[in-house]
Amino acid sequence: MTALLxxxxxxxxxxxxxxxxxxxxxxxxxxxxxxxxxxxxxxTTLVRRLAGLLDGTGSVHVGGEHAEAISPRIRARxxxxxxxxxxxxxxxxxxxxxxxxxxxxxxGAADLGMADQAAVLKAMDATGTLAFAERNVxxxxxGERARVALARVLAGEPQIILADEPVAALDVRYQFVVLDLLxxxxxxxxxIIAVLHDLxxxxxxxxxxxxxxGGRIVAEGRPEAVITHENLASTFGIRATIETVxxxxxxxxxxxx
Amino acid sequence: MDALxxxxxxxxxxxxxxRFLVPGLVALMVVLFLWSLGVGPVLLPLRxxxxxxxxxxxxxxxxxxxEIRLPRAILAVAxxxxxxxxxxxxxxxxxxxxxxxxxxGAPSAAAFGAVLVIAFGxxxxxxxxxxxxxxxxxxxxxxxxxxxxxxxxxxxxxILAGLAISSLAxxxxxxxxxxxxxxxxxxxxAFWLLGSLEDRSMQHVWIALPFITAGTILLFVDGAAFRALxxxxxxxxxxGIRLGRVRLRVVLGVALAVGGGVAVAGTIGFVGLxxxxxxxxxxxxxxxxxxxxxxxxxxxxxxxxxxxxxIIPAQNxxxxxxxxxxxxxxxxIVLVFRHRRxxxxxxx
Lengths: 257, 348
Hints:
The complex is a heterodimer. Chain A has helices at about 45-50, 70-80, 95-100, 115-125, 140-155, 170-185, 200-205, 225, 230-235, and strands at about 5-15, 15-30, 30-35, 55-60, 65, 80, 160-165, 190-195, 210-215, 215-220, 240-245, 250-255. By secondary structure, chain A is α/β, with parallel strands linked by helices. Chain A has a 6-stranded mixed sheet, sandwiched between helices. In chain A, strands 2-1-4-5 form a 4-stranded antiparallel sheet, covered by helices on one side. In chain A, strands 11-12 form a two-stranded antiparallel ribbon. The longest helix of chain A is centred in the C-terminal third of the chain and has 16 residues, at about 170-185. By secondary structure, chain B is mainly alpha-helical. Chain B has a single domain (about 80-340), classed as Orthogonal Bundle (ABC transporter involved in vitamin B12 uptake, BtuC), CATH 1.10.3470.10. Chain B has helices at about 1-5, 20-40, 45-55, 60-95, 105-120, 130-150, 155-180, 185-195, 200-220, 225-230, 235-240, 245-265, 270-280, 290-310, 320-340. At the A-B interface, helix 2, strand 6, helix 3 and helix 4 of A face helix 1, helix 10 and helix 11 of B.
């Protein structure tokens, strides 16, 4: 399989601190890769570096092309980036926020074309946000905002989705709904990287798990190979019970070491 | 999919609510423009105004309208338009309804540039060096402010920086007045600083217009970027927006617009704050759709203020800059009050 997104020895510094150090990572079409790691491990920096929002060492290839050789707009059509936090600065209607996802397709200032409208409605339908399409986005609950933010990314119909903590503010049910949605996008041929904090969810949804710490990849592979007592102790600094029921790994943290 | 689109035909119609906003504002502007041609020591009826404009009618009325009132009305529209747009653009860039050129000290800095030129008699008040100097002053202040603000400064930092820049520009202007070689020049400058459109000629119009037009064109480029910035800088950049270029265009556009205006009319504050605020609810807070209505509202506002100063009976004509500040500053206080919780938050 060829990689839709490939990072070769990418690194990044913030000020004088080296946040990311020579990370190699490739994601193929159809693959959902989940990145886990303790606070400050460099997860967000890695995702931002991949999204082209951060300069640094190493190189990123998007669809086989060097990322720096692609114009920002073309890159924006290929990569959908969902930042942490789901901030909305103006009290726009939900439908207008989701429509922002069509900007890379030229729907910047003028009215939306038919293809744009179809994509926006499809994304809203998939995320269950149609019900409050006309509401002011700043009046929504945290979970509703998270889904609107995801709908905005889906509306751009990107081949690659980089989602930084997409389920952080969601209740249990919508954590499943959102991750099901990301997995469905992957099965439909997208390449997806998601940063997650919940280790059981990460193990459940990841085709491949990437554990990073101190700006480096510590372990990578099938969930059962990455989620081990030794790895959890050396990176997160926790004791945990790891059970496998019906092929599903469940991690129950038992305390800090 | 098509069924889905068909089921919500209303949902994605941008501007449906504001269909009458722009035509309405244009009509208002035209009415105010004609009214301002009729108002003055000699009151002229609409008939005489139109005759005068087209060169028919009696000689005296024609002179009054074409030589005295037309330049003034044109400047009010042009300066108001560009200030309203500059305010909407700064608010779009910083994602905050409290941003405006005045808050950034741009007019004060522009005035200092212009005063320096006049006070020391480098050039006379009708040279292109005046708007050039004013523009440089505005450019320095807005550039410095965005430099301090960086990508993630809180609004509080921006406001404090704006205050500091304003104060510095004010002090520098005072120093220039203080050291002015000729007391009459100093007095003239002091009056001019209050912001007025009185006794302006077509020459003033030709000096200001190129700068204002260039600034206006630059500012109209970035509507889509302002809309994308609703999601914050990272998400906007990921949508293909080149933020460095956007910032540069806004700084230059604001500097050109403010510089051109200040050079011929002195400091006229708060139009850039008030105009976007008035029309924002009609465009459902969309920062891109806000721009044209905000500009038109600015033009209407300044023209109305300039009519007001001629109607209010007073010993000396009240300066239009004084009126806009008297209307704008209280509104600013109300806005601060309403947004005070957000003021400690992040701008980014």
